[in-house]
């Protein structure tokens, strides 16, 4: 036999053993996972958050920041509209 055939023939049994071990582990996992039914849980986070004072504090802080952003947005919108109006008048003249 040539040296090449010896090396291939010595690798094949180890590959077969590795494949059998892998299949055994996968089969065991599949079998054991099928024994228990899946559990589904539902958590109503809205009810949980209502009871926390920290949530109230955060909600107030978010409202304050939102109000600031709305004021800034209004100023920017007004400024942009004024520019558009000015440019429209200049274009029409």
What this model shows, in words?
The chain has two domains: 1-38; 41-93. The protein is 85% helix and 0% strand. The chain contains three helices and no strands. The protein is elongated and about 90 Å long.
* Amount of beta strand: under 5%
The portion of residues assigned to helices is over 70%
Radius of gyration using CA atoms only: 36 Å
- The average pLDDT value, as a whole number, equals 78
What is the distance, rounded to the nearest whole angstrom, between the alpha carbons of the first and last residues? 100 Å
Number of domains: 2
Characterize the overall form.
Answer: elongated
Number of helices: 3
Summarize it.
With 93 residues, the protein is an all-alpha fold. The chain has 3 helices and no strands.
List the helices and strands and how they pair.
Layout: H1 3-35, H2 45-50, H3 53-92
Note the main attributes of this structure:
mainly alpha, 85% helix, single chain
